[in-house]
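Give me structure tokens for this 165-residue protein.
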Amino acid sequence: MKKIAIVILTGLTGLGCLFSLTGCTKELVYGKDHESPPISKNFRQGSQEIFQASKITLQNLGYKIDFEDEEKGYIKTGWTPTEADSHYLELFDRQDYGTFSAYYQLEVRIKPSDAETEVEVTAPSRCIVRHIKSSFRAEKKFLSKLKNQLRGSDLQMSNVGVKDQ
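Here you go.
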């Protein structure tokens, strides 16, 4: 009787181990894309000059350019892991920053007009967690570095600020 109980218990333990190992390898949840509102800045330069400067700026910031269309004024980077301050979750009415398994990319749209050219940048994300939001730090950093890239060699400084000549 003891032998039968040991054999049954050993068999059940083996089956339990087998099921526990195979149950964890199935993909049950997939990440979803989350849109982010754009931020924009106007520049005096033309759209072709801004397009080239945007590519250089993205590459200098370490982004890989995945897709570009100069005619439409559109650049999209590859997926990059989120940083501790680039995205957050709104949890209990506060912004919860941290590292969680998420990725984001930058999308740049260049919109020419009569007087100035508008550069719009957004950082959509892909994550399993819902309601992830951009802190706009990556977007603002890109626009700041783009402004530096487009700055002319001759500038005028005063107590009010800096003007390009």
